[in-house]
Design the sequence.
């Protein structure tokens, strides 16, 4: 079945926001609808179109708007390099030497590289959406079209055609505001299914009101088009209207039960599947042929052992996130199950194609006049700017003139107003000052011995740190740690209970962590990944492996709120297993802390989550096996020293989204192992960051939008003394919202309630 998604445009305080990905997907659907069934896939018979209710309210770009927004490039087409460059210039693209970010294009001879804003394309495997494209001309004819690999800048998949979208934001906004509803573009004879119509209409009314009626179709008009343009309309949900236009609708109730839980032992699970197949019909969805072969072998073996009546079990090649059972009045049942539910493991990660991001640029620090800088020989000074002066150099027989040329110099002011002029050729001796001073450090005195003394102290401190790292590394290399065994049935059952699909990066990092734990040498691994990429789940699985072996786990987090969050997640995941999870933070009373410490020393606590309180000298473990450190960069020097001491004797897993330079450098040198999570979870939407001046209307619309999707809003304020006034302002802007205040100066119990 060919399926297509017609996404909705985001509604922010500034109105409808057109993202490149959403626009590309919408244009692709509109083009294929306009072309009819002549092209491969949707809307040919059997095609499926999925759209949120907000997308049906928004106008789709008209054919005229598409002609203004798009430029179609096809292999063997005659466009001409000059015409392409002229269109890119007019469409808001920037000409550069080498493409690095969306909206760039580069020309080299007869080759044009374009970093498009998401471009519908046709490749060997059908319609897709690409970002960077290389167009190779032979004269005025396009000889080839290829997707560019932004990491290597080489070519990847060949394309038959690609539609470049204008980078002119205003033109895109205008095109999205005028056009027809998607429902008016649907072919005749379409069958429509609406999930939870009552809730959908409520969201539609809220969206229409927030949009102010601009560029959107009213909900009644949308519902009318839905009924008029479709051959059949099915309403699916727990609450279906029974009056008005739906008063005479035929009602069908399906008694659905969740899929049964199968035994973690494969043989027993096969017998349970056979029993279910004897009471009705079973349909098993397998994502891979190997799953179907494995299940057939298990069923055949169970059938031979029992010698009972045959069962009705069929296999299909499909993905089913969660199974269900439909029971009829006579007791017969039809069950649809995912193979992962029977085999007792989570579904494999299936990564859909996603837009490539720009390559990371080399980071550099620009000095501005007034900034503090450090000169390698003179110390801390203030950069005043650049000046141009005549350079003095010895004349040679090749240059006998008095004019030795001009050169630029950095002017740096030190203590007592002394200024030093550094030629640009010696800029490697100067860098911007980065320090932990409260306020500004004093300027250095040129010619003083103080700066040389400070440098010598730093050299000695670096030597001491290097010696300490060497000692820790030597201890780790020769220490006999715990070599954990292979995964047990409990471990596999625990991991299969994870309700989401792992990404490829998660599975790779998990394999590296388990490989470290199976070695006798203590683990010291750095796990890097953005927020929400699944670092905590990997730590939980490592912790489960540790406590199942009989060891204890300590999880250290920098803030009380993060400790409470980790404790809740660990308790939820460890529910149903005989392991004890506790936390240590200022939210616990002194008596509670003493009791937890006592049980921890006796081995009655398996996992303890805490702030730097866990690094205190009075905290003793009965048998610590794993130390998990979350956001190490937010701990102080003394706390890091304690962490460094722990690394020599126990397994350490450090999680961070922004590693400190020293930690990252140690990983690059091989002193610490590193795993990276760069792939976002399936269906994770990109974060949209908007910087704008404060506007009550903008804030109110943003809050209403988030509440309409049953989400939460966090308002970060920079002053504790005025935070209550800000909270009252938010209450006035969104009276229907429940507003609470939380900050670090609140009493522990009150903060815990928040």
Sequence:
């Amino acid at each position: 079945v060919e399926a297509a998604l017609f996404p909705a445009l985001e509604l922010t305080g500034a109105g409808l926001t057109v993202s490149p990905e959403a626009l590309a997907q919408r244009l692709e659907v509109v083009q294929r609808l306009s072309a009819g069934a002549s092209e491969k896939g949707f809307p040919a018979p059997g095609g499926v179109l999925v759209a949120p209710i907000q997308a049906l309210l928004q106008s789709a770009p008209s054919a005229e708007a598409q002609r203004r927004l798009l430029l179609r490039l096809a292999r063997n087409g005659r466009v001409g390099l000059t015409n392409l460059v002229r269109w890119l210039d007019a469409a808001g693209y920037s000409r550069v030497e080498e493409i690095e970010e969306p909206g760039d294009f580069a020309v080299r001879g007869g080759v044009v590289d374009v970093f498009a804003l998401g471009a519908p394309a046709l490749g060997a495997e059908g319609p897709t959406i690409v970002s960077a494209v290389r167009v190779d001309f032979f004269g005025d004819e396009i000889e080839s079209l290829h997707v560019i690999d932004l990491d290597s800048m080489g070519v990847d998949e060949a394309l038959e055609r690609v539609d470049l979208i204008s980078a002119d934001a205003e033109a895109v906004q205008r095109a999205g505001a005028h056009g027809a509803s998607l429902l008016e573009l649907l072919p005749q004879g379409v069958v429509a299914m609406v999930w939870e119509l009552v809730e959908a209409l409520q969201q539609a009314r809220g969206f229409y009101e927030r949009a102010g009626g601009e560029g959107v179709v009213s909900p009644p008009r949308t519902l009318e088009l839905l009924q008029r343009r479709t051959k059949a309309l099915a309403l699916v949900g727990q609450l279906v209207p029974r009056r008005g236009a739906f008063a005479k609708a035929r009602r069908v109730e399906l008694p659905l039960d969740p899929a049964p839980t199968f035994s973690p032992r494969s043989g027993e699970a096969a017998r349970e599947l056979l029993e279910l197949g004897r009471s009705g019909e079973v349909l098993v969805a397998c994502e891979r042929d190997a799953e179907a072969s494995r299940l057939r072998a298990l069923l055949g073996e169970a059938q031979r052992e029992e010698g009972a009546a045959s069962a009705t079990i069929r296999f299909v090649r499909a993905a089913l996130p969660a199974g269900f059972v439909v029971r009829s009045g006579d007791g017969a049942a039809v069950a649809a199950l995912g193979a992962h539910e029977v085999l007792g493991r989570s579904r494999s990660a299936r990564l859909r194609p996603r837009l490539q991001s720009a390559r990371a640029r080399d980071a550099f620090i620009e000095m501005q006049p007034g900034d503090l800088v450090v000169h390698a020989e003179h110390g801390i000074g203030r950069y005043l700017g650049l000046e141009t002066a005549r350079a003095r150099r010895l004349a040679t027989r090749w240059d006998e003139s008095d004019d030795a040329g001009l050169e630029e110099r950095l002017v740096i002011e030190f203590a007592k107003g002394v200024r030093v002029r550094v030629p640009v050729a010696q800029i490697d001796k100067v860098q911007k000052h980065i320090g932990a001073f409260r306020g500004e450090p004093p300027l250095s005195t040129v010619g003083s011995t103080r700066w040389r003394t400070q440098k010598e102290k730093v050299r000695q401190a670096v030597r001491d740190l290097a010696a300490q790292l060497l000692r820790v590394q030597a201890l780790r290399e020769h220490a006999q740690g715990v070599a954990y065994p292979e995964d047990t049935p409990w471990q596999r059952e625990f991991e299969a209970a994870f309700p989401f699909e792992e990404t490829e990066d998660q599975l790779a990092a998990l394999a590296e962590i388990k490989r470290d734990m199976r070695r006798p040498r203590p683990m010291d691994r750095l796990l890097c990944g953005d927020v929400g990429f699944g670092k905590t789940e990997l730590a939980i699985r490592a912790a489960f492996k540790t406590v199942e072996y009989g060891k204890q786990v300590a999880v250290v987090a920098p803030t009380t709120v993060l400790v409470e969050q980790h404790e809740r997640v660990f308790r939820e995941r460890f529910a149903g297993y005989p392991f004890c999870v506790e936390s240590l933070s200022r939210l616990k009373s002194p008596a509670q802390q003493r009791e937890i410490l006592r049980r921890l020393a006796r081995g009655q606590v398996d996992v303890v989550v805490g702030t730097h309180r866990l690094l205190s000298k009075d905290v003793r473990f009965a048998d610590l096996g794993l130390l998990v450190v979350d956001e190490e960069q937010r701990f102080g020097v003394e706390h890091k020293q304690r962490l460094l001491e722990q690394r020599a004797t126990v397994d350490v897993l450090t999680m961070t989204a922004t590693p400190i330079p020293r930690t990252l450098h140690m990983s690059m040198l091989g002193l610490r192992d590193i795993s990276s999570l760069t792939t976002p979870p399936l269906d994770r939407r990109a974060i949209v960051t908007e910087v704008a001046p404060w506007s009550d209307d903008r804030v109110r619309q943003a809050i209403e939008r988030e509440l309409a999707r049953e989400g939460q809003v966090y308002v970060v304020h920079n002053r504790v003394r005025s935070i209550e006034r800000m909270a009252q302002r938010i209450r006035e802007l969104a009276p229907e919202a429940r507003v609470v205040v939380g900050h670090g100066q609140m009493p522990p119990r009150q903060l815990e309630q928040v």
